Amino acid sequence: MLLIRCPWCGDREETEFGYGGQAHVAYPPSAEQLSDDEWAQYLFFRDNPKGPFAERWVHAAGCRRWFNAVRHTVSNEFISVYRPGEKPAGGAA
Ligand SMILES: [Zn+2]
Questions:
Q1: Residue 30's Cα: distance from chain center in Å?
Q2: Which InterPro entries does the UniProt entry name for this protein (predicted)?
Q3: Distance 41 CA to ligand 1 centre (A)
Q4: By percentage, how much of the chain surpasses pLDDT 90?
Q5: How far is the CA of 63 from the centre of ligand 1 (A)?
Q6: Distance CA 69, CA 6 (A)
Q7: pLDDT tens by residue, 21-53
């Protein structure tokens, strides 16, 4: 069983969490001026690295709060977890 550390609750089983995709994808300024291709890039295109990846997670069966995590996509190791507005430890992502 994989343990994920919620920044508020501590280590909990992975079944308590939901995955929210890539972290730090900013809503585009002047979105109404984007072309269809640019809007599609914002909506659907995400990085797919082999290595550390900043992701959004929600502790759905716990405190129900969102947070960010840097997870290694090969080893599945959670390198760091941090609250929204915080920076990850070690400067990754
Ligand atoms: Zn929690």
A1: 24
A2: SoxD, SoxD_sf
A3: 31
A4: 88
A5: 4
A6: 9
A7: 999 999 999 999 999 999 999 999 999 999 999
Dist. CA 35 → ligand 1 center (Å)? 39
Asked if residue 1 has pLDDT above 90, the reply is no
Give 77 Cα–ligand 1 centroid separation in angstroms: 19
pTM above 0.85, yes or no: yes
pLDDT at 24: 95
Q: How far is the CA of 92 from the centre of ligand 1 (A)?
A: 22
In the chain, helix, strand, coil percent, each to 5? Answer: 20, 35, 45
Q: Give the bridge partners for 71, in sequence order.
A: 53, 78
> 84, 66 in Cβ contact below 8 A?
yes
In angstroms, what is the span from residue 50 Cα to ligand 1's centroid?
A: 27
